Amino acid sequence: MAKFVNRESLAQVLCDNLNISKKDASYAIELIFNEMSESLASDGYVDISGFGKFEIFFRKERMGINPVTKERIMIPATKLPKFRPSQTLKNKCNNR
């Protein structure tokens, strides 16, 4: 069965391995994700060695079609987070 990871399970791992309270572990997880989010929101990037890199991808303005009315509409430019896995993570996922 595949392993499922979310904030609560990460906090539990911290709790078990560092012998800290669940509240402190949850706070640490929250701090990490807030710092990552703030960096990306200010057009920075997050580089976690051995895991991967999060960076902002700029999607240009483009023409689209409303599927209901078939009317052509302009879709505005947007900024999106993008993840690039490290070679270490790629190898781990492929059992190398």
From TrEMBL:
CDD domains for this protein: HU
Signal sequence bounds: none
GO CC aspect terms: cytosol
GO MF terms held by the record: DNA binding; structural constituent of chromatin
InterPro entries: Hist_DNA-bd, Histone-like_DNA-bd_CS, IHF-like_DNA-bd_dom_sf
Pfam families listed in its UniProt record: Bac_DNA_binding
Organism domain of life: Bacteria
Keywords: DNA condensation, DNA-binding
Record bears the keyword Transmembrane: no
UniProt keyword annotation of DNA-binding present: yes
Gene Ontology BP, a term: chromosome condensation
Family: Belongs to the bacterial histone-like protein family.
Name used for this protein in its record: Diphthine synthase
